[in-house]
């Protein structure tokens, strides 16, 4: 039996539905976003600790720069923190790079989504979790870092591409290279 919330690779990802701020619709507050919205697409659910911090914008801005690459691979990026939609909106107004991300930012003020994905820090903020969910809602990959160290968005993109081959992919595999055969 699981001692926490039983988040497991190869099993259905926890469903979520939460208010979000979406730079594609900047004036539409409390827009609801759920995992069901992306059925038939890959989803990168990307948790970060807080708006208006030092490491978080570096990750989000870099993901924003790669967003078109993820979209070409039928993958929707969804960022999430325990901040409010109003905080997300204010951050985007203060930093135009956040306002140009091209993907929604969930407001997980209830902390339920962070809890379900096992990234809820004891201080009530989210750890740096990244979850790749396939078009059928199955969790294929998860990485979690503590608060102080950001993740590499290129590695998340590489991992997505590797899963999409349907093959066995060796260490450091890159798109266009040979795979090891069928998984």
Q: What's the average pLDDT?
A: 91
Helix coverage percent: 25-40%
| Proportion in β-strands | 15-25%
Which segments are poorly predicted (pLDDT under 50) over 5 or more consecutive residues?
none
Gyration radius over CA: 16 Å
Distance N to C terminus: 28 Å
CATH topology: Glutaredoxin
Please report the first level of CATH classification, the CATH class: Alpha Beta
- Summing up helix and strand content along with how strands pair, one would put the structural category as alpha/beta
Global shape: globular
Number of helices: 5
Element-level helix/strand string: EEEHEHHEHEEH
Overall tally of structural domains: 1
Largest sheet: 7 strands, mixed
Give the name of the CATH superfamily. Answer: Glutaredoxin
Which sequence of strands runs across the widest sheet? 2-1-5-4-3-6-7
Descriptive report:
The chain has a single domain, classed as 3-Layer(aba) Sandwich (Glutaredoxin), CATH 3.40.30. The protein is α/β, with parallel strands linked by helices. The model has no long low-confidence stretch (mean pLDDT 91). It has five helices and seven strands. A seven-stranded mixed β-sheet has the order 2-1-5-4-3-6-7.
């Amino acid at each position: 039996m699981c001692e926490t919330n039983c988040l497991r690779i190869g099993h259905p990802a926890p469903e979520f539905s939460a208010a979000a701020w979406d730079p594609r619709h900047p004036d539409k507050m409390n827009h609801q976003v759920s995992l069901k919205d992306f059925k038939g697409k890959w989803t990168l659910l990307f948790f970060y600790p807080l708006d208006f911090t030092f490491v978080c914008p570096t990750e989000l801005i870099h993901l924003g720069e790669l967003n078109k690459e993820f979209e070409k691979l039928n993958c929707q990026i969804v960022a999430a923190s325990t901040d409010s939609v109003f905080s997300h909106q204010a951050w985007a107004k203060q930093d135009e790079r956040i306002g140009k991300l091209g993907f929604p930012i969930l407001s997980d003020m209830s902390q339920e989504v962070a809890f379900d994905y096992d990234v809820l820090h004891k201080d009530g903020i989210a750890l740096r979790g990244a979850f790749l969910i396939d078009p059928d809602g199955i969790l294929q990959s998860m990485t979690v870092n503590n608060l102080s160290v950001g993740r590499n968005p290129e590695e998340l993109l590489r991992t997505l591409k590797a899963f999409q081959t349907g093959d066995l992919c060796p260490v450091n595999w890159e798109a266009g290279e040979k795979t090891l055969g069928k998984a």
